[in-house]
Write a structure and sequence with these properties.
This protein has about 140 residues and is mainly alpha-helical. Helix content is about 65%, strand content about 5%. It has a two-stranded antiparallel ribbon with strand order 1-2.
Amino acid sequence: MAQEVIDLDTSLGYLLKEAASALRAAMEDVLRPLGMTVTHYSCLELLAQRPGLSNSDLARGAFVTRQSMNVLLQSLERDGIVERPDAAPVGKALPTRLTAKGRRSLEAASAAVRSVEKRMLSGMTDAEQTAALHALRSMAQALRA
C-alpha cells in the first residue's frame, strides 16, 4: 500500500498550524512587554468573560494542563491579579475571579492582542472574515464529534 503524500502548500491542517504558530508568536511579542504570556492573557480573558471558573475550566479554556494552570493561578494570586476563596464553596473547585488590578492588566493586554488580530485580518474583506469564522467553527465541531 502506497503512503499518501500530503502537499504542505495545500494542506489545510498544516496551514492552520502555521497560522496558529504565527499568531501565538505575534501575541507573545506584544504581551511580553506587559509581563504576560499567551496563557496568562488567556486566563485573564476567560475570567473576565466567565467569572468564577475553576482551575480545570481555565486549563481547558487556555489549552494547558491543570497542573500548569494551577502554577499560573498561584502566581497570579500572589501578585494580586486574581483571588480565590480559601475553601471551595461546593465540592473541591475554587472559583477564581479577577481583582481590580487584574482587570487593569487585562485592559492593556486586550488592546495589544486586538492589534495583532486586526493585523492578521487586515488583508481580508468582512465577508472573508465571516467565512473564515464559520469554516473554523465547522472544522473544530467536526473533529469533536
